[in-house]
């Protein structure tokens, strides 16, 4: 059965792969991104999701053609790297404005229609890194963790209308995310260790899971009747970090993380 699916951040990377995949499957896919993308498989509605007026206009445009909204995949986001000490206020606000506020505005945009039709599915794309403070990615971890908690709250609030909401925590996916990260100026005390961690960070992305595998996993989620609040997708070595954080003594876990990030 064909669904109307809205996906944010479809100009490249995971978002583009998702839009292409579901469009080829016969779904009516609308991609929201600031950059217009020509594709035979989905329609781009140029939108800056941090602009509330643009979000509202995009939803109106979609509903002028479609009589329902079945799925929202909040994929748009950005990374941020650098020492916590060196981050500027503008960098932090830019990150949270997209990773948190933009996603919230998208949910607010589709929920009235989903309530009216008494059904809907919303997937907020987060990160395995939201479950722990990653070295030199503290604000990225924090922005995604904030989205996780908002998602948990929304699940309660919309449950009377048969609307399902979940967080999908991704490990490293092979995309061009490094080209779009906010990168703080790194002060001298941190430079040597940051350079080592940053090189490792990019290597993990280069060795990451293919974006189309994320699409296949989401396809299985959309077929489920009852969602959990959190799902985790990625390579075993990254996913295992989540339960280990819950189970291991804090100091022991931190030492493992230092070794994994070459900080020992």
UniProtKB/TrEMBL annotation:
Keywords noted in UniProt: Oxidoreductase
Which Enzyme Commission number(s) are listed?
1.1.1.163
| Signal keyword on record | no
Q: Which GO terms describe its molecular function?
A: cyclopentanol dehydrogenase activity
InterPro entries found in the cross-reference section: NAD(P)-bd_dom_sf, SDR_fam, SDR_oxidoreductase
Q: Which family does it belong to?
A: Belongs to the short-chain dehydrogenases/reductases (SDR) family.
* Record-given protein name: Cyclopentanol dehydrogenase
Q: Top-down, what is the taxonomic lineage of the species of origin?
A: Bacteria, Pseudomonadati, Bacteroidota, Flavobacteriia, Flavobacteriales
